[in-house]
Design brief:
By secondary structure, this protein is mainly beta. The chain is 10% helix and 52% strand. The longest helix has 7 residues, at 23-29. The termini are close together.
Amino acid sequence: ANDSINVFISSTVKLIFSEPMNMSSVEGGFALTWTEEGTTNTVDGSFSWKDYNKMVNFSAIRRDIKRTVKI
């Protein structure tokens, strides 16, 4: 869910939509972040799309921390 806090990611974040999405719009609006010592950091990763652009997986490079998901 949007603005979910303390999400521990062990593999990927999966987003499922009811209709096909604009890939660049979703990827541009997606942020996986964590705050450390008052600084907000963004997690790098990659997107993979499926089901005619109705499902996307985000695979984070750094997986050992709790994060906030914003869509």
